[in-house]
Amino acid sequence: MLSILSAVGGLILSPLVGGLLTGVDRRLTARLQSRLGPPLLQPFYDVFKLFGKEASVTNAWLVFSAYMTLISSALALLIFFMGGDLLLLFFVLTVGAVFQVVGALCVPSPYSNVGAQRELLLMLAYEPILILVFVGFAMCTGSFSIEAVFAQDQPLLLKMPLLFLALGYALTIKLRKSPFDISASHHGHQELVKGVQTEYSGPYLGIIELAHWLDLVLILGLCAMFWHTSVIGMATLVAASLFTEILIDNITARLTWQWMVQKRSLLLGMGLALVNLLWLYVA
Amino acid sequence: MNTLVFCCVALPFAVALVLYFTQLDRTRKLLVPAAVAVMALAAVIMGAHGTFRLEAETFLGLPLDSLFSMLDLLLLLYILGLGWKLGSRTVMGMTALQLIGLLYLKFVLADGSAPVTAFAPDGLSLIMVIIITVVGGLITIYGLGYMDIHEEHLHLRVSRKPRFFAIIFCFLGAMNGLVLSNNLSWMFFFWEVTTLCSYLLISHDQTKEANANAYRALWMNVLGGLAFVSAMLFIQKSLGTLSTEVVLHKMTAMDVKTTAMLLPFAFFCLAAFTKSAQVPFESWLCGAMVAPTPVSALLHSATMVKAGTYLLLRMAPAFADTTMSTIVALFGAFTFVGTCILAVSQSNAKKILAYSTIANLGLIIACVGINTAASMMAATTIIIYHSVSKGLLFMCVGAIEQRIGSRDIEDMRGLYSKMPRTAIITAIGIFTMMLPPFGMLIGKWMAIEAIARATQAMTPIIFFIALGSAFTVLFWARWAGILVSSANLHDRPAHGNPKATVMFALRSLCGLAVVFSFISPLVLETFVEPSVAGVYARLGLKTEGFIPGASLTGGAGYFWIYLLFILLGLGAWIAWKAARKVSNSAHSQPYFSGLTQEQAGQIGFKGPMNAFEPVRLSNFYLAQYFGEGTITRAIDIISTAFLIVLVGGLL
Amino acid sequence: MGFVDKMIKRSRLKSPWIVHFDCGSCNGCDIEVLACLTPMYDVERFGVVNAGNPKHADVLLVTGTVNHRNRHVLKQIYEQMPSPKAVISLGACNLSGGVFKDTYNVLNGAHNVIPVDVFVPGCPPKPEAIIDGVVEALGVLKAKMGMGPEPEATLMPGDADVPTAAAGPEGEAASEADKSMKNAG
Lengths: 283, 651, 185
Fold this sequence. Notes:
Chain B is mainly α. Chain B has 24 helices and five strands. By secondary structure, chain C is α/β, with parallel strands linked by helices. Helix content of chain C is about 40%, strand content about 10%. The interface between A and B is large, with 72 and 67 residues.
């Protein structure tokens, strides 16, 4: 019971953390571009404003998809906080991703459709890596349960450094950071407008943004699992991952989707994961 | 028990005979549902009763064993004649070899060996019987409505429906016989009946393409039959019996499994691979798409392809803990990823479904190859849920095709505005294939867990499975998305749903898929787990580390499934309510850089000279990377190499 | 709900997302708009984001001469922005047609097509003027929400003929437009 309560509590706190982290992200990005950047609470202003806007929808399925995206993100986070099963977590994450695609495809708009197709390619790129990383956890702990990870007495980073890199790789894709922001660029005035998010507006865009915050928290949580033995270690990993993501985001240009499929993700990411898995298997 | 077995096996053949001579539509429409109901009831009662053994030496005064021998020979002679008619040396040669083998088996090897228990189904067989009669039965009922429209389109002078339904009932009876019978030579008879039935059904429309594809199905399956006969010969020679039960007992009792002992099982694998259309034999199942939809649905979900996986699952304990088993697992995983990739390049809905079927069968075979209690449970779960979902999806595509005249998913864009209920059911069908908390995903979850816990060649297998799963999401998600594509806020289309029998079948299967997913812990506990545990207990196999239900993270696994189902269901309901609530005044056109225009209900751009330019969209099919032409050859070569290693490695 | 309402209203003033539509200007104004995003001026300090999509935007920045060809586009972009929203008309051409005023294909200002809240004159206006325009637009928004007084119109010397209020959507100009549309082809 206590675990459920604390999980729900964590779930309620997560949007706050996610929003703040997004604020830090925007501020840091601005500093990297020698700008001052928006206030730290800017993401909250944005989302509050969006919730206050008039609804304007092309297809009711868009609304359905927006809600489903948020619900699955929240559910994935709940599973994480309750120390549930990693594979289950992965499958629930897939629900959110699939509904993002469905939402983008349900409007006959070229921008969102191209975005959806590219989003599918992104999923193709990160999903196998995530599964392999989770299998790596299972090989180290003997179970897919998150609780089992925290029962270990050695940080897992020592056993699976390459898997950590592969995870970081997959997460860059999942967060749609540059160079992998091919399905919904941060800069809405480019060729794709906003890709999968083009047709969402007002409160429904706010919902999608909220889901994105939750995903961010979940993903950083997954990173933290690699050094679960000390709080400082977890904080270090989270900070390092976040900073690296932002840095990469700022110093790279977007890939074409062909690059995405052929060279970058499938070969590099899965290669890293595979080498580490083989090592775990032999050791 | 006698009656129940009779209802499941002999009754369909009798019904088929009556149907063949019935020209009246009305009689058929009464007889088919009645027969289906009787069979399904019998199957469910049989399933509830649990495993049993039934000696049956005579049938209507005839000695059954001789009867089956006679029928075997007659059937092979018929196929030989068929080969003659088609002018195919391949079919004739292979059938002749089968005949010789069978005669040698009956008159030289098996002469005077101990009688074999007629029926000794285990838990898996009972599950299969229920699937065959319930899912297959619903597909048959669907066929009633479907074939009416189908023949209307063809403008036939004489209806071919009597023949069609007669063959379908033969098919169902043969499948039931196959899974229930204990004697391998009886099983072989039913095995060949399914081959013949599938040939007749695929060529049903008698077009040039249908005949060519039916021929391909025939020769590939005859090859499988040949492998089956060879396996029987070797088994009779080495173990001196054709009883599945005894074979399994003898094999599992062995400490060291020699090459000679394993060879027949390699042949069984070969037979199963042809029947289950694994690469490189996948082309017959893809070609089978030319047949009327009930046939495709039947071939893919309840019958035919499941026969191969059934055989493998049944025989799996015999070759546990061998290198051969590992090769089978690798082969299955390779088929999974190969056909998932092929499916990505397809826009033909039936082809997507076909490749996805082959992929899932590959996953089942990978689980069989892993050969632990957990992986067996995963395989059984996937068999159950795959049958329901895939049967449903095929029937949806058939209904859609009859309405819009195309089976291309690009033409299904915005289907929700034309046939809302069918579109929703199709979308649900797609989600049951790929998303939690539905049964297929639970099966896949168990499979990944089982593979991660196995020690043999785990890394490449999990690599294949991970890659394949991602491709699966790719081709399902985009199909689901474009079904609801529309520029209208709330589509309120006129009613124009398919015929009553079609809709009945669609709704029942859709309901089954959802309800069965919800009670999946119950299904796992009452069907899957006892079936696997029973086999392991009977054969005295070590079930070390096998806690019933453990493949779902221990006892708590069930809790997660319910929690997930309830929360996601609640979430979907809230989302649905919210979507319904959006008022019409909130409608806006999609963003086309300010050039949106609507004309005659169609959305588009304002083009040059103020001309209306309708919006045209298409999915990425990535044919330059994943096209059939690009990679089929490579997949065939690699898979043939696997087969050569499988059989050749033993010699 | 009072708190949430207040939060939303205050957030609106802190997060004006902009969509920029160029009706065919000489790019002078557009360069100045982009200059606002550079480190020199950094409008993101005020939460301004160049959204590039009317469905995400709160403020429409229009530049260039509005003509019969693009007035429909301008109108549709305006209509696709969900309320509450504000419009800033930028540069001489957009205010009145500029040097093209009264030519056969020009509509003499965006205010003839959509209701404009703030006019920023200049050829081109300086980035400071543009930022000031956005701040004025926020004042208008504030007034619309009943949180403050209507900002006073500041007229430039010699600008007596600048329209003081948003003109009706399409009056005489529209029928005139249809006629010349045929000529324009």
